[in-house]
Amino acid sequence: MKFQPLDLDALVLAAQKPSRYVGGEVNAIAKDPRSARITWALCFPDTYEVGMSNVGFRLLYHVLNQRPDVACDRSFAPWPDMSAMMRAKGIPLWALESRAPLRDFDILGFSLQFEAAYTSCLEMLDLSGIPVFSKDRTEEHPLILAGGPCTVNGEPVAPFFDAMVIGEGEEVVLEISDAVADAKAKGLKRTQLLDRLAEIPGVYVPSLFEVRYRPDKTVEAIVPRKPGYEKVSRRVIPDLNQVPQPERPIVPFMQTIHDRLPLEIQRGCTRGCRFCQVGMLTRPTRQRDPAKVLELATKGLANSGYEEVGFLSLSAGDYECINPLLEEFFNKFSPERIAISLPSLRTETMNERLAQQIGKVKKTGFTIAPEAASDRMRKVINKGNTEENLLKAIDSVFRNGWSLIKLYFMIGLPTEMDEDVLAIAALAKKAHKVSRAIRPDAMINVSVSTFIPKPFTPFQWEPMIDTGETIRKHDLLRAAFPRRGPLALKYHEAKGSVVEGALARGDRRLATAVHAAWKQGQVLDGWTEHFNHDRWEKAFVEMEREHGVDWRFFTLRERSRDEVLPWDHIDCGVSKEFLLRERDRSRKLKTLFDCSKGFCPDCGACDFEKIQTKVYREKDYVPSAPSEPPPPTPEIPVADRGLLRVRFAKLGRAIAVSHLETIGLLMRALRRSKLPVAYSQGFSPHLQVSFGPACPTGVESKAEFFDLELVRRIDPKELMEALGPEMPPGFPLIDAQPLEWKARSLTSSMSAVHYLARFPEPRADLAQCIEKFQAAERCEVVRAKAARGAKGPRTGKVVDLKAAVLGIEVAGLSEVRFRLRAGNEASAKPTEVLSNIFGQAEGVRLMKEDVSFSAEPAPQEEPVAESA
Question: What is the 3-state secondary structure of 532-562?
Fold first, then answer.
């Protein structure tokens, strides 16, 4: 039966990070896939915390679920520990919302954001029980799609996907949904469906093209098998204001890589950096109306409880209205202590006013990407900034409160010489001198990556430097940087760069290497601890054996101007003539001006009817509210403040959420509730909330507590009505009680914790186990501690269960109840009780039923001698 939910609780709890797999987050959309006309599972070929940081992935999830006839779930690549358990137990990969196997869905849509994800796509397909090669799939299998920036040259993975989306997907995914639904209704064959999909603008069907090769191993021709299907043109949404931004964004349980409210303020970049693929692929610049940005921020924060907003753009400083928008944003949200992050800033757009705006609430790390350190190299890559720009930007940042800056550079750029490499160290030292003159504790981290030529850039014909040359340039930099101190150098691993370089510009023959690497166990290439270059070397040998071509052919070789490139049948807007012209201009150190300022370089991206540059000028900015900042918050006398103790439960899937994750989601629930919670004082103010001892992961509870300080007294009923609806699924409120200001803290006032344990099978010996425990004089448990370096294990802590267990009784054929002493002294873990008294902890379900509180210091209660 399709869409039958899998029994996953035990599997999820056995994983290293259970909340990666649990689902059920705030604002997640759980539809019944059995009642939908079409079903999608959006698949991100990396871990949950990476995938849920991707704004495009999140956006498509909401776009699809806005359709009443579409049900869209999510799935992510499992960590190797989970993959091993799934294979051992025969459990297929599933979707978070429905917990149904991925193979049951109509469409699996993979997000290809980086080449390092390719082997993980195969892993996810295999774990789902779906053939990895499209030619091996039957009518019973889902349609396997890919989208994202890598599809502009999807040839290295073309044999694995039925179709790919080229360009922006917010409209095309709905058209694909209709085509698949119609094919289902008419009973069309898979080949007929693919033929239909090829008629949708922006959809690339690899099987409808044949690639022919010359004797010299270059591509001879890319021949369409469908008449009129010679080129696939990217999809572009002309107006960013028409892109639906989710007003109720998902709030993950676990901390993601970018743990904030993402708001796209600008799409596209027309600066023309010659190394930058995404800048070429997303032309022209399209800015979102600043009034709309503010509206989306207001709704998104109210419905999520996030403490930070990310204004997303390839270069946020290029957003024309950034300064007045930030000013209005902070006037509106400064009472709520909302921070702003601008993930990408160009040095020439950074100024004193902008630094002051960003730093008003929270000083997170500040990132600037000069890319090249010498004036000549900046002209080669058309970066358009100067050393003076960088030093002024650094001065502004440190003067406005930051203590850390990250600088990003590249090595291996076309025409680069050793003096250009050494200029990185020289410029970093100048930057450090500027920073230390402002604050003595200033730190600068310099990160250096190896340039990888990418398709659809002026440098797509250039050779990449090999591993040996990369290491040599690393050595130059290491010698030029101080060995330790506040100016630190980091660089990307050289061997990983050459693999990425091959996959970036390769053709379909590289699919052999991708498949071979995966068969050897290579997954999650983007994680340093999982990347294994030896596996890739063996995979490339297999490719060479089958096709007579090695990885150097794709990576280290300069392409001729008239060579047929593997992606020549894809039209991404910018013309080949423009790219060649820019390549020639780079050799002449000529600058390309930003066309958003009025100069048209004739790149081919605009049709000047629907698709063209759209910007909002600062001179036309109209504030939506008075520009005066809010009055300072008055100091509330302690006598007028409120203090409440709140009790809540942790049930169902919520048992997979850790204690720290629980704290984070409750803080955001409090923000959503709009309750008058007090803030701490100081540099980084936070809500005045204190939590009780941690509830172990995997334990259900009806007795979790936190104490809450409010700037005014409120009735507990008011708190329940405001906070109750904002609690995440599985975390219901139970009650709230007022406290006196002199009340003891949660932890110190707890005297006992009450548990109910349910064994997986009835046990006739429960009473005898209790009697044996009660008859013993002592029952000691040695709690092992982690080893400390080379000194070996530390002495384990001895816990006396006789002192820790305050009461224990049989509650049924397979149930026992027991009370444990609270606090650090003579305390025990419930699993220690189960293991040492009953000889069984695995498979036992625990419920924390209640907590006993003592108004006075907890008495030294003797252990119970008999069953309560």
Answer: CHHHHHHHHHHHHHHHCCCHHHHHCCCCCCC
